[in-house]
Amino acid sequence: xxxxxxxxxxxxxxxxxxxxxxxxxxxxxxxxxxxxxxxxxxxxxxxxxxxxxxxxxxxxxxxxxxxxxxxxxxxxxxxxxxxxxxxxxxxxxxxxxxxxxxxxxxxxxxxxxxxxxxxxxxxxxxxxxxxxxxxxxxxxxxxxxxxxxxxxxxxxxxxxxxxxxxxxxxxxxxxxxxxxxxxxxxxxx
Amino acid sequence: xxxxxxxxxxxxxxxxxxxxxxxxxxxxxxxxxxxxxxxxxxxxxxxxxxxxxxxxxxxxxxxxxxxxxxxxxxxxxxxxxxxxxxxxxxxxxxxxxxxxxxxxxxxxxxxxxxxxxxxxxxxxxxxxxxxxxxxxxxxxxxxxxxxxxxxxxxxxxxxxxxxxxx
Lengths: 189, 166
Known about the structure:
The structure holds two protein chains of two kinds. Chain A is of the alpha/beta class. Chain A has one domain (about 5-185): Rossmann fold (3-Layer(aba) Sandwich). Chain A is about 40% helix and about 20% strand. Chain A is built from eight helices and eight strands, in the order H-E-H-E-H-E-H-H-E-E-E-H-E-H-E-H. In chain A, the strands form two sheets. Chain A has a six-stranded parallel beta sheet, sandwiched between helices. In chain A, helix 1 (about 5-15) packs across helix 2 (about 25-35), helix 1 packs parallel to helix 7 and helix 3 runs parallel beside helix 5. Chain A is globular, with a radius of gyration of 15 Å. Chain A starts with a helix and ends in a 6-residue tail after the last helix. Chain B contains eight helices and six strands; from the N terminus they run αβαβαβααβαβαβα. In chain B, about 50% of the residues are buried. Helices cover about 45% and strands about 20% of the residues of chain B. Chain B has a single domain (about 1-160), classed as 3-Layer(aba) Sandwich (Rossmann fold), CATH 3.40.50. Chain B has helices at about 1-15, 30-35, 50-60, 70-75, 80-85, 110-120, 140-150, 160; strands spanning about 20, 40-45, 65-70, 95-100, 125-130, 155-160. By secondary structure, chain B is α/β, with parallel strands linked by helices. The chains are: A alpha/beta, B alpha/beta. At the A-B interface, helix 3, helix 5 and helix 8 of A face helix 3 and helix 5 of B.
């Protein structure tokens, strides 16, 4: 299973939740699979999906799922410590760990060598850290979202590989405003 | 404490209700005040760039965020400012302790001090430079300005303004 297959499998679970989706192919694939206003596509700032989702979950009550990648988490690993100490129960971090920098041509990341993001997350103080296969991710993610009392970090171990895909045609302000309209903040659209 | 209290009061008057900091000794009194304030959210964060991301999420969730940091933190955050906060036009207040300005005892702070305003200018970030107590009155209006122009804004607080704020 690669990232595109996994995103296809979990898209139904995501539909009522606020989703922050990582820059590059993850966002482009999710957009192609089933674009929704409750999906915030990152067009820059690699590494910050987990942090954006954390800020969002701290500021309103809806469930938040940050979709991040192994390469991106390696770039901003300190945020696991913030999540380990501050994440509220409506926060779920899904790390799609394919051991590869997919958007830049599938160069290997350190999770394909010695680094375990599960161990890093646990060491950083994160609660409910789950490492699972792509097939198990649907169940684990559903459980995490349904649990109103705990935050989760799910590390989904899948294969590398991408599908051919176009950049997202949406303007950043369109992404921002329809997302905030879904939350109930923007009234003018 | 008088200066720090005035800064926080003016930020709150400007509508700021979500605060993060990467600590600085010049920010210590403000952090004390915020930790005891139940009306607003406050947390420390390990790194400024990450804080920009958390602020962006808090803005999406209808908060008006402020990140407090040394001017060195701007150097750590340039890409996040440009390709997240400015790309999506997010109003975030940077409250910056301006290390390396006159009064600073640590010479090594001078390097970032020399280029801090150049970086902010290059980024086209509106600046409010506070060097005396009177300047602090401008903070509430300046914070509101961030929302009006949908842009991050920077408030620079000089070393000498903050250093004797016992």
